Amino acid sequence: MKRTMRHITVAQAIVECFKQEQIRYVFGVPGESYLPLLDAIYDEPSIEFISARHEGGASFMAEGYAKASRKCGVVLATRAVGGANLTIGVHTARQDSTPMVVFLGQVNSRFLGREGFQEVDMEAFFRPIAKWVVEIREAERVPELVQRAFRTAKTGRPGPVVVSLPEDVFSKTITEAVMAETYVPKPAPRQEDIRNIKERLERAKRPLVIAGGGVKWSGAEQLLRLWAEKYALPVMAAFRRHDVFPHNHPCYVGHLGLGTPKEVMETAEQADVVIALGTRLSEVTTQDYRLLSPTQTLIHIDIDSDGLGKVYAPDIAVWADCREALSRLLDIAVQPSWQEWAAERRERYEQTAALPLEKRTLHEAVMASLGHHLPKNAVITNDAGNFAGWLHAFFPFGDGHTYIGPTSGAMGYGMPAAIGAKLAFPDRTVVSLSGDGGFMMTVQELETAARYDIPIISIVFNNHMYGTIRMHQELQFPGRVIGTDLGRVSFARLAECLNSCGFQVQTEQQFTEALLLALEAKKPTVIEVLTDPNHISVAATIQDLRAKRKS
What pTM does this model have? Predict the structure, then answer.
């Protein structure tokens, strides 16, 4: 019997692609240029549109959702103005290697090139920060190119793809296409690569693994743990990839981030063989590209062939999916001779990660309370700012998928990303940590969380300043404060105005009481922590910084 081909609109074809990709949530701010697509989503019960208060917030939600779910985040926006607003999320997805597909309504085909209302050349605008940009003007090619967009976002090094469609294209009728499942290649290492790695490890005295986002995206955390245990390999987490390896494991020796303790740095410097696994060896991970030296043997394993040798010339470069690589590395036979060194470096890490039992700062007390009271599978997201230094230094992350943070350092990220993470993990506690500067940048999305009944917990460290910039200001121009002081805002009261719960705390006991109430709440909750502005970072006070410059 001959199959009857159905005719559907372009908007309906895009929704069919969403279904094929198992997209459950689509984020955005409504715009008249893509109303037919919104209407097609209205007819599809398996997909929910999350209407945000700002496109930047929507893009952070999609990025957080993608990190949590390991699926593509999807964002919708209108023309140049909506596209411009969400660029911060596209840049974050690029630097964080997060799969995201952005759909933008463009001006009518008849007006293209005339600088029409809210028109911009989308391809030129997004090309520097997107993995791929395409403007689809031929309706018949929509299924082909939208599927390609999802495939491009997910394959190799994941990243953001931008798809632009003139507003008149959405309503055009096309013949329904047969949707094929997107194939994501997972290259395996060559046998020669595995032999070479085995030979280097046999000669190693002080090997070290630096594990990054590629381990997480391939779902290889368990394999990494088994490999490290089998050969007593010390493991470090790359910048803001904390949950790549459990912190209570005897093989874990620290996090390479901002303000890394010297004891952790010494471990990396002493290593004679460094295995960079699923990391692009970014500026922060490598401490301004100064961490590794030519005397060390570098083995770089990554799914992004362009990244191999981009920062450091590796002795062994392996183009492979981390899961495929680790499954083969588990089979090599190496007799470790570095157990004593590994145990020593673990001990040094434990000394840096231990919270003081007495005379704690409020930041330290908050970390202790979170570590004690949060469920083990709770997900923590964080914004950019010096407050995160205490999280990076002291919070004991467990098994995978418990941490989401921006390696791009984007302010305003934490709370919207928590919304996305909570949608991915509705049965898990999700907590965001922000400073007052960053939280204010996307605070309007608290109303989005309330409107959609998304019960996240947002902790705001309020020192009434842009703390990170103030620290650098005091280092370079002590006492000459300009632009970094902020006004006094009651975030607890603001939360209540946005249909959420709000608490303001100044002591460890008050924080713990508020946290326990928040864990039982059925709506978004903000815990505003009033901190001492003098405590500008984990390692210094403003008073210390000024005194050093005077001496």
Answer: 0.95
